[in-house]
Amino acid sequence: MDGRLLERDAELEVLVRAVDDAGEGRSSVVLLLGEAGIGKTSLVRTFVSEVADRARVLVGACDDLLTPRTFGPLRDATVEHPGPLADALAASADQEAVYQALRLELRPRGRPTVLVVEDLHWADDATLDALRYVCRRLNTLTAMVVLTYRNDDVDDAHPLRRLLGALATQPAQRLQLRPLSRRAVGGLAADAGVDPTWVFTTTQGNPFFVTEVLACGENGVPSTVVDAVMARIRQLPRRTRDALEQLAVVPTGVRPFVASALVGDVGVLEEAERRQILVASAEGLAFRHELARQALLQSIPRTRQVALHQNVLAHLLEQERPDLSRVVHHAVAAGDVDTVLSRGQEAARLAARAGSHRQALAHYEQVVPHLALLPPDDQARLLVDYSWELYVAQRWADSMRASRRALKLWESLGDRVAEGGARVVLSRSAFMAGRPNESIREAERAVAVLGPTGDIEALAYAETYLGAVQALTDRQDEALARLLEAQALAARAGRRDLVALCHNYIGCARVDLGDVDSGLEELRRSLWLSLDLPHHEYAARAYTNLAETAYVLHRYDELATWVDEGSRFTADHDLPGHLHNLEAHRALLLLSRGHWDEAQTRLERLVSASAEPDQLTRLTLPPLGRLLARRGDDRAAAMLERAWELALTNGSLSAVAPAGLAVVESAWLAGDVQDAEAQITVLLERTKTPAAARARGELLRYLSRAGLTVEAFAGCPQEWASGLEGAWQRAADDWRRIGNPYERALELAASSSTVACIEALDVLDGLGAAAAARLVRARLRELGASRIPRGRLRATRENPAGLTERQVDVLSLLATGLTNAEIAERLVVSTRTVDHHVSAILTRLGVASRRDAARRAEELGLVSEVGSTVSV
Questions:
Q1: CATH code, domain carrying 825
Q2: What is the extent of the structural domain holding 825?
Q3: Is the CB of residue 123 less than 8 Å from the CB of residue 73?
Q4: Which H/E stretch holds residue 784?
Q5: Bridge pairing between strands 28-33 and 172-176
Q6: Which of 120, 229, 258, 603 is 20 to 30 A away from residue 567, measured at CA?
């Protein structure tokens, strides 16, 4: 091929038009995706050349490194463009500072700024978070963002999915590059004098494959692209091949001075450039395609690769401030353990500080196998840091193992302060692993160890964590006193972060003890202080505890606010454990408000995503089992039995109550509450305290529905007390005010009014609450109703995408060109709810824009024609 850009005019036009739109104040994102070799980079190069005179262009790329560079593509983009972003990255790569600097780089400045990030499938978490941050603020920018990635390398669990999900509600266009047509390939093959049919059959129109096959000419018929690449390289002089091999171990472009340092006279590479194996520019040298580099790399013997990596490593270590991710990558490949140990720890800590926790963990995991080469105190310190990163990654059991290793080392060294700190880490990980008793035990030991040391800061740390776990395990009175003392110690020690964390758990304890307003104020104060520090993990804890408190109090509007804000924050700051917690609460909100299809989908996804039971299981498995029981699903019994076993192992009321209540409700729905005798006995004993009033109220209401004689108690929440007192209308009104249609229907069904029971039946049928609907029909027969509704016949629509019925409704309206606000008005729901549906639809359909979703709707037969007004 001669460098022509074939069959890409339409895509190029979209890209150029988006720049013009940005200049007029309509910023947007263009996703450029396709398989390896499809021509994404070639199109980007042509596009950049096309708009260079009318836009400020920043270009960066992600590399196929062992551990991605923190903010790697943003660093590349600023090399030739000094400014706030370059300054922020050079200063410390603080996450918040980089966010604000990137936003400044893309602000209005007379002409639009184009930010190109290539190969996003290799991006680090910090880069993905920064892009998500600015892409949600496009309306304040004058920018056009181009993101390229290999869609076949991005599965549902890939971190890039979070960014793609955030773009679902933003002005974004999705350009998927297709292979060259048979006609285009035929023309190229004819020019080269090669059989067109054979070329197309062999390459399937992949531009890179076509190029390599045609380059072999008539002398070779390669069976693979690797063969094609190597056939071209073998035609080069030995010195040129040696130089290419040296460059092949560097998974990125090489700047001119680096190329000179690695290969000496770069003139030996002229023939490689002439044969279009290399591309040369002012920025340096790069293989024309990553596949070519990888093909050459595969052909190099391992022993030679080690020597080549050693050359690159030596050059990097000569730099004043080398890129540590590159250093670690080449040190591992070169087998340089000393450098892995010395630079890997530093790289991990910098990545963690920048919010790239996945990368920090990857760096630590390169270092940990060589721990024995470090002094014992260095081993212990590294293990504590490693344990925290495992904690952030939701690998609670691994975190416990790492902190136990650190603890053993500190005990042997006799360092009591460090030992106490390690016990705190172990305590927190044990709690999240669903082992609260072990968590309390380790926190108590930490306090006991640290008390005699006189180290106020370390003691404040341990007392705070002991108070926290006490507040979360039914010891609120004891926790409150301890946390107030810990907060005073933290203030004396100047630990503002611990002061903020104490506010969090003081708030939880006060809410549980009945002082709701004061408790909520403490929780909000914890959030504000943590955000101001900033302390991301403590802020995330505040969001999760605010969400859980709102859920327990049945304050669903507040719950929606904290879930929305917290999910954005935890996604932006790479805190998957807290994001999981908040997404579980989103599912609980949907369940409570009657959106059962979506709630079930989310709960099933969260349950399947958990590799092993942990503290968060209480938020997902019992509610899912309970929902399945309500729907008459045979899977419910086994799921609830498992949930109860896990709850007993956990032991805390926060685990026992949801699992036990789910079993009780399931037994009531099945017609024999005595089947839940064990759960009832445990719950009656465990819910005697004021902090357990809400769980006790719910338990007693189900017992009363089963015909047992029970009474409301002092402090019983009004919504449960009304039902217990037989005031069904007042109870139904309470649940209407709260916004829970299922509980409202159950209270209506408790009346002797056939009208109220029929209304309840209508609600239950609409929810798909088959088990309760069956009980209400029996109730109507007892009341002598002459005509009992048979239930709604739901239309069954062919739906290969697996969408819920409500999602199908939203998709049908979306395809007609309605905005989310207009859809919300049609369906009588909030705009935020429609936003969530649209995001879920795009994910389910595997598309990135509303226009593509509309086309898919047409294919599914949901609309007859896609309107031209659909925005993207």
A1: 1.10.10.10
A2: 805-859
A3: yes
A4: none
A5: parallel
A6: 120
